[in-house]
Amino acid sequence: MSSERECIFTVQPGGQLTGNIRVPGDKSISHRSIMLGALAEGITEVSGFLEGEDNLATLNAFRDMGVDIQGPENGRVVIKGVGMHGLKKPAKALYLGNSGTSMRLLTGLFAAQQFDCELTGDSSLSTRPMRRVTDPLAKMGAKTETTDQGTPPIKISGGQPLKGIDYDMPVASAQVKSCLLLAGLYAEGKTCVTEPAPTRDHTERMLTGFGYPVEVKGNRICVTGGGKLTASKIDVPSDISSATFFMVGAAIAPGSDITLEHVGINPTRIGVINILKMMEADITLCNEQTVGGEPVADVRVKYSQLKGIRIPEDQVPLAIDEFPALFVAAACAEGETVLTGAKELRVKESDRIQVMADGLQILGINAQPTEDGMVIQPGQLGSGTVESHGDHRIAMSFAMAALRASGPITINNCANVDTSFPGFVALASKTGLNISE
Ligand code: S3P
Question: For domain 27-235, is the CATH number 1.10.1670.10?
Fold first, then answer.
């Protein structure tokens, strides 16, 4: 298990980020490319696939269900689709590591299969809430079992006929939406999901790209069961969530000027750019184009003095994975930053409100956690040892904090950076971060 491998980052203070780089592929899109490619008729070719541990967990799960998948090799994956009903019962429980996306989306897909299966994960994934998917799936007729706390392992009984439901999601979650849409592909009639606020729409876009009709009216998304998927070519853009660490690093470190190439700028993902711009970051987009149904651009960020803001709540779902890094930006701004409406951060790979507040306090920043957000008074970042709690995004965020720190920052438990950003240390070093592992 990666979280049990010893990995400590030591980052020397100061420096600036410069150059042109391409960060690895989008994690959310990479997961979906394997899932839909496996269920399609024909051969799906993926380029730019993220070879991180989370995506490899999804890929291996489909191999365990008899799908012939070649690669990944330099981001290229070739999937021989088995069709909607071609998956085979895996010989053992499917281990999904740290990956909440794999677990929640696959629960929806497996609820509709003819075979039983069990999904397990690492110590972090084993504490994450799953009733948000198992409750609505039960309304569709699915049979699943979790622990008494509603956490993994999840046991799914196959052979249950599903019927479409009309579901009002209580939390804005793309994982819940996607889980229900995947189950809906097999359900009798129409499955509709209404979101309280827009969340990433990669599932809807990719289903459409594979020829499966998706009805979208405002925040209501519907699919009708019984259709089929036709193989497609997928070019995965760079992950804006991984680009975020470099955007924040460049925004806070004087002298920085970095260009992040071919970044996915899907409107449901660009909260981080919107928020940094509100904080008066110097960000420009160029070479905007659409690739395989997803908008991409090169993102150039230059240093500028940031201002603290009250973050608008409507930006929260659009930047949900970017707050650890944004908290570091807030620590380096002029004036207070206040985040509210972000309770979901408490149930990510770690409790990102508590863990970031603890780490920032160790570094001398007045960061006060609240139930659903944080209040940050900027100040001089100091030196110290912080805990990432095995959360990849916490580790990378504190690494960037060193650019403005008065002394070295040591970050414990960083092995899970490989879940989303293999090669982070080498790429960050190349751009000017003085980091060693
Ligand atoms: C994801 C959705 C988000 C996000 C996660 C990836 C996805 O989770 O935090 O990293 O690929 O659908 P929620 O649906 O829990 O917000």
Answer: no
